[in-house]
Specification:
Elements (H helix, E strand, L loop, with lengths): L1 H27 L4 H9 L3 H26 L3 H4 E6 L2 E6 H12 L5 E11 L2 E10 L5 H20 L3 E11 L9
Parallel strand pairs: 4-5
Antiparallel strand pairs: 1-2, 3-4
Helix pairs in contact: 5-6
Length: 179
């Protein structure tokens, strides 16, 4: 939810920057009507307060987005296990390596790419795979889902909520000829 709001604000502010850029280009080309409009608008004290408060609010929003872009969010990049001696953090990159290792034990898979999302409820995994021809894809993907879930539970103690698999390519093996 927080990311969605940030994206909306960034989109609105980007549109504002584009409008300001167009205004500057138009003013540099000699069209002074927008500048005269702003000057006439600022003649009234009430309008000055409105513009000043709007500018301050925009500055605060922009500053908040700027600061939040540098803030580390380890809870989104790691999975934390509490033990008696302290915390154990497992990065999503490490889990990606475990997924690739587990998928190598499934016959018929040529390549695996994983996208991981960690939530409080567990781990959501989206796998994009290349398979060899002449394999039973539904059976093979079901085996892959089971093996990945069991392997992550056994090695990392991770609760896997869902594994979605997309077969994006049939990898035809090229065999070299001996002449």
């Amino acid at each position: 939810m927080h990311r969605t709001l940030d994206k909306i604000i960034i989109g609105v502010m980007s549109f504002g920057y584009m409008a300001a850029a167009v205004l500057l280009v138009v003013l540099s080309l000699g069209w002074t009507s927008p500048l005269l409009f702003v000057q006439n608008y600022l003649l009234f004290m009430t309008n000055r307060w409105v513009m000043g408060l709007s500018g301050a609010a925009l500055f605060l929003i922009a500053f908040t987005l700027f600061v939040s872009s540098f803030r580390a969010r380890p809870e989104q990049q790691t999975i934390v296990h509490e033990t008696q001696l302290g915390q154990v953090r497992i990065t999503l990159a490490a889990l990606d390596d475990l997924i690739i290792k587990a998928s190598k034990s499934v016959q018929g898979i040529r390549e695996v790419k994983a996208l991981l999302r960690s939530t409080e409820g567990g781990l959501y995994i989206w796998l994009r795979i290349q398979v060899l021809p002449d394999v039973n894809i539904p059976q093979m993907t079901e085996d892959l889902q089971k093996k990945v879930k069991e392997y992550l539970a056994k090695t990392a103690g991770v609760n896997v909520c869902e594994i979605k698999v997309t077969v994006n390519k049939i990898a035809w093996e090229t065999r070299s000829r001996v002449e």
